[in-house]
Amino acid sequence: MLSNTFPDGKPISPWFSEVPVIDIHKFTVYDVTSHGVLPGRPDMLQTAAIQRVIDLAADHGGGVIYFPRGQYLSGSLFFKPGTHLHLAENSIIYGSQEIEDFAIVPTRMEGESVNYFAALINADKCDNFTISGSGTLDGQGLPYWRHFWLRRKFNPQCTNMDEMRPRLLYISRSNNVHISGISLKDSPFWSSHYYQCRKLKLTNLHITAPHAPIPSPSTDAVDLDVCNEVLIRDCYFSVNDDAITLKGGKGPEADKTPDNGKNSDILIENCRFGRSHSALTCGSETIGNHNILMRNCTVDQVGSLFFLKMRPDTPQLNEFIQLENISGNCREFFYAYSWTQFRRSPELFPSYGKNITLKDIRIECVNAFNITNSEEFTLENIFMQNCIISAQNQPAKNFEGCHAFTFDNVKIN
């Protein structure tokens, strides 16, 4: 029987069980092809023409920007309050492969508020925003990936942001958002990023980016960044980085910066995870995650089922996290280590992973546990119940800090 509470005992509100069908006919529908946008022209940049349709709808009280069957090429688009996006079956918006087609704007990247390139689809302060349909956002990321790996060859210290790349979807400072039905593929950078959103629903999404022959670097499927009350249901993720990553700030002063914050009340259920670095990650750019519940999911060729990416130069508190009724295969069942890349301070700040429950899990893996550099973070009260872990290697590749674990009916082969 499914629990009706979050890990700290807080009731799961009825909002999480209500997934309405997005009815575009409740709004005025603006067919882009009726307003000067040409379908079937993936070689013709139409950013300005599409943006004019969005602005027209916003100026007349809002409406749905409707893309019928066809192919469309665009740079960064900015949705306004009252506007929505619908991608009809067999409609594809391609992202430009030229970075100059993406505006440089104040945005949020890697746990900080900065000026950087806008995404293909952007919506800021757009309460009740929706994206619906069964079409595709295609980032055409291959040239961006090639340039990134080439840059890394001559400068191994280059960061993800040093090589200029846009995201596919960025929604910020918005409440009551619902993204449903569409596919996101081949993003140049993060696939979808949500910042300071409350009451966010992601349902029936298909988000992919390849790991070969050219790996798609940092193509996280879903980045939650200071978000509260989030439902992720019936989605498929397979990317060349983490599938679902929790972010919120980084650096020694991260918990004192007003733009930062924690993620809370996140429900992830009935999702499938294909090849990715991790299914669920508490990221290196986070200061706090509370009440994270992931259940009824399957994993296949995932690097880690659960990844605590502890950052020693940032105060972190990851607590009341529960994974239950999970099956499949992965490399590491439970992975926690001190993330030292691009460390900003030699001083260690208190970082915790505590009150974590793993129950009713059946997993085949290479290593059951990989916990390293635990002197730089603290694990407390990790409870495992009714789990069968079939590990190829010894149960622990590295199992520092094992005193934090309590086991009840757990079998590790």
Structural class label: mainly beta
Strand segment tally: 30
Helix content: under 10%
Number of helices: 2
> Per the principal axes of the C-alpha atoms, what is the gross shape?
globular
Rg on CA atoms, Å? 21 Å
Mean pLDDT: 94
- First-residue to last-residue Cα separation: 27 Å
Identify low-pLDDT runs.
Answer: none
* SS strand fraction: over 45%
Explain what you see.
With 413 residues, this protein is mainly β. Helix content is 6%, strand content 49%. It has a 28-stranded parallel β-sheet that branches. A two-stranded antiparallel sheet has the order 7-8.
Quick overview of this protein structure:
The protein has 413 residues and is mainly beta. It contains two helices and 30 strands. The model has no long low-confidence stretch (mean pLDDT 94).
Task: Reconstruct the topology from this structure.
Blueprint: E1 29-31, H1 47-59, E2 63-67, E3 70-74, E4 77-79, E5 83-87, E6 91-95, E7 104-109, E8 112-117, E9 121-124, E10 130-133, E11 136-138, H2 142-154, E12 169-172, E13 175-180, E14 183-185, E15 192-195, E16 198-203, E17 206-208, E18 222-225, E19 228-233, E20 236-238, E21 242-247, E22 263-269, E23 272-273, E24 276-282, E25 288-310, E26 316-338, E27 351-372, E28 378-391, E29 396-399, E30 405-412
Parallel strand pairs: 1-2, 2-5, 3-6, 4-9, 5-10, 6-11, 9-12, 10-13, 11-14, 12-15, 13-16, 14-17, 15-18, 16-19, 17-20, 18-21, 19-22, 20-23, 21-24, 22-25, 23-25, 24-25, 25-26, 26-27, 27-28, 27-29, 28-30
Antiparallel strand pairs: 7-8
Fill in the keyword field for this structure.
mainly beta; 2 helices
